[in-house]
Specification:
The protein is an alpha+beta fold. It contains seven helices and 19 strands. The strands form three sheets. Strands 6, 7, 9, 10, 11, 15 and 18 form a seven-stranded antiparallel β-sheet that branches. Strand 1, helix 1 and strand 2 form a beta-alpha-beta unit. The longest helix has 27 residues. The radius of gyration is 21 Å and the shape is globular. The relative contact order is 0.14. About 5% of the residues have low confidence. Its main location: cytoplasm. One of its GO terms (cellular component) is cytoplasm. InterPro entries: ATP-NAD_kinase_N (IPR017438), ATP-NAD_kinase_PpnK-typ_C (IPR017437), NAD/diacylglycerol_kinase_sf (IPR016064), NADK (IPR002504). It is an enzyme of class 2 (transferase).
C-alpha cells in the first residue's frame, strides 16, 4: 500500500485571540488573562499532539500555517486542519472535490467553564461544528480513515458570478452582499430563476444586505438572523434579506429557498458594495449595475463529518420547504 500524503493546516498561535500577548496583555482581569492563556496553551498542545500521532502513522505529511496558504492545494490525499471551523473554511477555498478534509477542533468549548464565568465574561471556546475530531479521538478517527472504515460526506458549496464572470472562490458557509459601510442602505433587486424562466416575482429592496447560505452554513449567521437549520447534506440554498425597509407586499419573499436547479439573480443598485465569502476576509467589490448570480453549480467539498451530522433527519426541513414554497405561491396569486 502506498503511503498517504497529508497536509496539516494549522491555525497560527499568534494570529488568534488565544495568544496572551499584544492587546490581551493590557487586560487587568486576571481571570480573563488566565482563560486566554489557557486557550493559547491548549491550541499549542493540540498541534503537538496531532503531529506526534502523524509521526507514528504510515503517512507522509507536512505542516503549514493557514495564513501561508495562497495557492490551490494539490498532490496530497487529505487535508487535516487543526483549529476550528474557521481553519476548515479557509482550507475549503483551496481544494476541489478530489481532496477530503478532516477538521480537528483544537480547543472545544467547555460547558462548565462557560457557566462558571457567565457573570464575568464569555468563556466560549471553539464550536468546531464541522470538525469530526478532537485530541480525544483524533487517532481513532485517523485510523478509521486510513483503513477505509469511513468515507467523507459531500457538502454543497455555492458559486457566484458577477456579470457572468465566475468568482474564483466557492463558499462553503455563506455569502453576504452588502454596502461596505454597515450603517449605509443596500439597494438591490432580486428574483429566483430556473434557466430563463422566473420562479418568483422581482423584488426591489432597501435593506442592510442579502445573505445566502448553504446547508452547512445554515447554523451560522443565517440561523442567528432567524433562518432555520437545514440537513447538512441538502443541496438547497437559503437566502434572507437583512433588515428590509418597508417590504410591504413583498414581505413574504424576504426569506426563502433556492433549489439546486435554480439561481438567485441580483441587480446591485448602489455605487459600491462587496460580496463577502465565508466571513470578512475574502471579499470581491461590486458597483452600480452589476449583475450577481448565485447558485449551487460548484464542486462539492468532501469532509469527514461528526457522526451526528452525517445522519441528520430531514423531516423538519421538508416542513420548512413546504411552508416557504406556499408563501411564494400566495405572493403570486
Amino acid at each position: 500500500m502506498a503511503r498517504r500524503k497529508l497536509l496539516l493546516l494549522l491555525k497560527p498561535l499568534d494570529a488568534c485571540s488565544h495568544s496572551p500577548s499584544g492587546g490581551v496583555s493590557r487586560l487587568s482581569n486576571t481571570q480573563i488573562l488566565r482563560h486566554l492563556g489557557s486557550r493559547y496553551d491548549v491550541h499549542r498542545d493540540a498541534i503537538s499532539f496531532c503531529e506526534n500521532i502523524l509521526q507514528k502513522k504510515f503517512v507522509d505529511w507536512e505542516a503549514m500555517l493557514r495564513d501561508n496558504l495562497c495557492h490551490p492545494i494539490q498532490n496530497v490525499d487529505m487535508v487535516v486542519t487543526v483549529g476550528g471551523d474557521g481553519t476548515l473554511l479557509h482550507a475549503s477555498h483551496f481544494v476541489d472535490d478530489s481532496i477530503p478534509i478532516l477538521g480537528v477542533n483544537s480547543d472545544p468549548t467547555n460547558v462548565d467553564e462557560v457557566e462558571e464565568y457567565s457573570n464575568e465574561f464569555d468563556a466560549t471556546r471553539s464550536t468546531g461544528y464541522l470538525c469530526a475530531a478532537t485530541i480525544n479521538n483524533f487517532e481513532q478517527v485517523l485510523d478509521d480513515i486510513l483503513e477505509g472504515r469511513v468515507v467523507p460526506s459531500k457538502l454543497s458549496r455555492l458559486s457566484i458570478r458577477v456579470n457572468k464572470e465566475l468568482l474564483p472562490t466557492y463558499a462553503l458557509n455563506d455569502i453576504l452582499v452588502a454596502h461596505p459601510f454597515p450603517a449605509e442602505v443596500s439597494r438591490f433587486s432580486f428574483r429566483t430563476n430556473k434557466g430563463s424562466q422566473p420562479c418568483s416575482p422581482l423584488v426591489n429592496c432597501r435593506s442592510s444586505g442579502l445573505r445566502v447560505s448553504t446547508a452547512a452554513g445554515s447554523t451560522a449567521a443565517m440561523l442567528s438572523a432567524g433562518g432555520f437549520q437545514m440537513p447538512i447534506l441538502s443541496h438547497d440554498l437559503q437566502y434572507m434579506v437583512r433588515e428590509p425597509i418597508s417590504p410591504g407586499a413583498a414581505s413574504n419573499l424576504m426569506h426563502g429557498l433556492i433549489n439546486p436547479d435554480q439561481t438567485l439573480d441580483v441587480l446591485w443598485s448602489c455605487s459600491e458594495g462587496f460580496i463577502y465569502i465565508d466571513g470578512c476576509h475574502v471579499r470581491y467589490p461590486i458597483k452600480h449595475g452589476d449583475a450577481v448570480q448565485i447558485s449551487t453549480v460548484a464542486p462539492v467539498l468532501r469532509v469527514y463529518l461528526p457522526p451526528h451530522l452525517s445522519g441528520q433527519e430531514v423531516y423538519s426541513f421538508s416542513f420548512k420547504r413546504d411552508s416557504v414554497e406556499k408563501r411564494w405561491k400566495l405572493s403570486n396569486m
